[in-house]
């Protein structure tokens, strides 16, 4: 078994977003998703009747009444919970955009390409976007920056922790006191795990990179290192990209999501370990509920219990893959696509932002 | 999925597909909405539309008789009533359940709950 960039994206991007989407369904949704003013402004600047593609639209935050927004994402869970007026949704992949050539007026590419594992795949996304844009059409690109005002990433290819207890439930953040005198952002950056995304032939370097960082984390950051599934009773993760040829390393790798969710039994034992009271209550509910109520009601109760339990578990951490961009890297990547021209570059709240324009390739190559 | 979306979609990303346009469309269920008509917006949209594909979409919901079978020379010379027929096809008809089909490989992309699934991995299963 070896690891490819697609495997990293599958495990640490696609499946984890599907997982997270199930915790953000309507009844648990934090008040409203964060709208970025610059993105809103870009959408509002488009002329009446424009067709705008939102690549990796997630919760479909950017709708428009005077334009026509088509949002697509690979995550069906987030799309089906995001249906609303003034936006059309589609399941599709940013590296294979199902749109005809030179047909759309503008593209949003917000927080997408930092989830792709190699330079060639990131460029492929930009090439696909450019193919769909009409000449003169503009694309707004945001990607997370390596240069952070509140911390320092150890590398550019990283697994970034996302802690369940920092999720709002019913619009409120659970009250969890941190013993570390740091901001959330600093903790997240400090706890990120560098990875080597490499060709299959040198896959072992990836494992050893993760392994060494996990080991050093264990020494430096006892709070976060507890998350590594090796020490707890989590079920071994069949889908971890380490494969069976390195069982020792498989124990050390942080899996993208905690592994006690899939079955009822492992769920209850998992919860019991962290909250015996809640575990007992859940176990006592389970049988009578299934006997007395419809399946639907039982599922609702289970879902709410799981969400409540998950949020109280400080031990639960999800990991997402990011490639963070160094200064100039994003505009260089845009420039490497023949049909795109950088219009402006800026740095905003820890992200690099580039506005690119589709140019006629006939003109630059007479 | 509103019918105007069909006009922009292509299966070109599939292996061995050269054009992948227009996609064939079968509609099992659709809703008719009442989206506000705007003359300018409709003309702008029609200027982007490929007429041949628009006829395919209109035929899929048995409403091809609402619009001319030949592309009008100038959209901005059409009356409001004529444009409203286009507006109805493009914006009011919302496909809930159906299929988009690649014209070359006949790969089927299902539309469920109004959301077309154009993922390559799913299509290749």
From TrEMBL, chain A:
Keyword Cytoplasm annotated: no
CC annotations in GO: cytoplasm; nucleus
Keyword field: Methyltransferase, Transferase
Domain of life (superkingdom): Eukaryota
Biased composition (Polar residues): 228-245
GO BP terms: tRNA methylation; tRNA wobble uridine modification
Pfam families cross-referenced by the UniProt entry: Methyltransf_11
Stretches the record annotates as Disordered: 228-249
UniProt domain Methyltransferase type: residue ranges: 53-141
GO MF annotations in UniProt: S-adenosylmethionine-dependent methyltransferase activity; tRNA (5-carboxymethyluridine(34)-5-O)-methyltransferase activity; tRNA binding
Protein name per Swiss-Prot or TrEMBL: Methyltransferase type 11 domain-containing protein
Organism: Caenorhabditis remanei
Lineage: Eukaryota, Metazoa, Ecdysozoa, Nematoda, Chromadorea
From TrEMBL, chain B:
Entries under SUPFAM superfamilies matching the protein: Trm112p-like
Entry GO MF terms: protein heterodimerization activity
Pfam families, per the entry: Trm112p
Biological process according to GO: rRNA (guanine-N7)-methylation; tRNA methylation
Highest taxon listed in the record's lineage: Eukaryota
Family: Belongs to the TRM112 family.
PANTHER family per UniProt: MULTIFUNCTIONAL METHYLTRANSFERASE SUBUNIT TRM112-LIKE PROTEIN, UPF0315 PROTEIN-RELATED
Protein name: Multifunctional methyltransferase subunit TRM112-like protein
Organism: Caenorhabditis latens
């Amino acid at each position: 078994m070896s690891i490819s960039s697609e495997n990293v994206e599958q495990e640490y991007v696609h499946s984890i977003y599907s997982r997270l989407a199930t915790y953000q369904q309507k009844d648990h949704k934090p008040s409203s998703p964060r709208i970025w003013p610059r993105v809103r402004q870009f959408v509002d600047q488009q002329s009446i009747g424009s067709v705008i593609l939102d690549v990796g639209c997630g919760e479909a935050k950017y709708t428009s009444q005077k334009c026509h927004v088509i949002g697509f994402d690979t995550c069906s869970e987030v799309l089906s919970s995001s249906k609303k007026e003034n936006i059309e949704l589609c399941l599709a992949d940013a590296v294979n955009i199902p749109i005809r050539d030179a047909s759309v007026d503008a593209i949003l590419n917000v927080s997408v390409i930092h989830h792709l594992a190699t330079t060639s795949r990131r460029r492929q996304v930009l090439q696909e976007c450019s193919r769909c844009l009409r000449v003169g059409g503009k694309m707004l690109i945001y990607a997370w920056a390596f240069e952070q005002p509140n911390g320092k990433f150890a590398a550019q290819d990283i697994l970034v922790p996302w802690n369940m207890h920092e999720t709002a439930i019913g619009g409120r953040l659970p009250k969890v006191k941190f013993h570390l005198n740091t901001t959330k952002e600093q903790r997240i950056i400090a706890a990120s795990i560098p990875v080597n995304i490499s060709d299959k032939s040198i896959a072992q370097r990836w494992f050893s990179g993760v392994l060494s960082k996990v080991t050093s984390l264990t020494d430096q950051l006892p709070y976060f290192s507890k998350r590594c599934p090796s020490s707890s009773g989590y079920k071994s993760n069949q889908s971890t990209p380490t494969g069976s040829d390195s069982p020792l390393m498989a124990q050390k790798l942080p899996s993208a999501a905690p592994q006690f969710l899939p079955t009822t039994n492992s769920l209850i034992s998992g919860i019991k370990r962290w909250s015996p009271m809640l575990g007992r209550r859940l176990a006592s509910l389970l049988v009578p509920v299934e006997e007395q109520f419809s399946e639907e009601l039982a599922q609702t109760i289970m879902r709410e219990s799981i969400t409540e339990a998950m949020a109280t578990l400080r031990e639960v951490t999800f990991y997402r893959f990011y490639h963070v961009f160094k200064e100039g890297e994003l505009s260089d990547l845009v420039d490497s696509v023949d049909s795109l021209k950088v219009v402006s570059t800026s740095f905003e709240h820890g992200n690099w932002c580039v506005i690119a324009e589709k140019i006629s390739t006939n003109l630059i190559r007479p | 999925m509103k019918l105007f979306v069909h006009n922009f979609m292509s299966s070109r990303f599939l292996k061995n597909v050269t054009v992948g346009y227009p996609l064939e469309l079968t509609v099992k269920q659709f809703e008719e909405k009442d989206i506000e008509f705007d003359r300018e917006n409709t003309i702008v949209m029609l200027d982007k539309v490929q007429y041949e594909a628009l006829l395919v979409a209109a035929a899929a919901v048995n409403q091809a008789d609402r619009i001319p079978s030949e592309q009008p020379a100038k959209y901005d010379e059409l009356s409001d009533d004529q444009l409203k027929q286009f507006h109805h096809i493009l914006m009011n008809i919302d496909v809930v359940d159906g299929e988009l089909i690649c014209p070359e490989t006949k790969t089927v992309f299902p539309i469920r709950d109004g959301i077309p699934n154009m993922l390559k991995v799913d299509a290749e299963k």
